[in-house]
Design a protein that fits this description.
- This protein is an alpha+beta fold.
- The chain has a single domain, classed as Alpha-Beta Complex (50s Ribosomal Protein L17, Chain: A), CATH 3.90.1030.
- The protein has four helices and three strands, in the order αβαααββ.
- Strands 1-3-2 form a three-stranded antiparallel sheet.
- A hairpin with a 4-residue loop joins strand 2 and strand 3.
- It starts with 13 loop residues before the first helix and ends with a strand.
Amino acid sequence: MRHHKAKRKLHRVKSQRTALLRSLARSLVLQEGIVTTVAKAKELRPFVERLITESKSNTAGSRRAAASIVGNSAETIKKLHDTLAPRYAKRSGGYTRIVRLGRVGKRMIESARIEFV
């Protein structure tokens, strides 16, 4: 039973799950909107929102923290701190939205678009 287990496993071991979330976060920051499954989008939302909240302080420490979370992707860190953080400076949370797109493909997986507000 999964009582009080907050996060989804996404049918992956921890290292694969972390790598998946990092790559989805990188894509979301760079493209400002991606299409994925509903479960992945729901897991990605708090991951990215923590990144933006951290980058709003715009210090060297926040850049290092973001680099350790997302991986050393210079363009992602630059866009987080120079574009997205100032955009949401007055907003205290809720930087992303998830729009359900319906079932797609042969397996009929429910897909969603996650994007910045």
